[in-house]
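Annotated sample (chain length 205).
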Amino acid sequence: MRGAWRNPGGGTSGRRVRQLPHRMAVVALAALLCVISVRCAAGQGNASSEYEVKAAFLFHFAQFVDWPPEVFKDAGSPLTYCIAGGDPFHGGLDASLNGKAIGGRWVRVLHFKEAGESQGCQILFLGIADKKLVSATLAKLNGSPVLTVGESINFAQGGGMIGFLLEDNKVRFEINVEAAEHAKLKISARLLALAKTVIGGPKGT
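Output written by the structure step:
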């Protein structure tokens, strides 16, 4: 397990916390959907661009999700992103989130070799394509207040909360509201409005 987290109280960085106002976050997320296209047919640069877009989405997703208060130990606890089953971002998610904060909480990124090691995570990205392994991980997390995000085929339909997909060379996403509500997570209606598909109906606020 390794992590990238800069604690404002630790004096290790000196960087200012960068945090977008909520309205600007909506505009930024909508812009990603409208103007950023990804060519994934060939080439390392194209794959890199795809995961730069997905990293930006992951940052913005957290701004539109409410977790139960008991998820965090105290007001100083970080918001924790976890990547399990390999890192398709190749460190890009760590770099893009470094020094940022969401909802007043510093952000850290942890990496796990095993997909089931998700204790202490608020957002879990499953960088695995094996459908059986994805299903087993989601079943193990059933009801846990962890926002699950993946990119395997029919991820959201299979019980994941947010599933990435490529459509017309653009990164889009689907949201499973039922899975999120079962885990006591509240997804904003603003994020639901930007999703390609909402499973379970627009119940967010």
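Annotation: The first strand starts at residue 2 and ends at 5.
Annotation: The radius of gyration is 16 Å.
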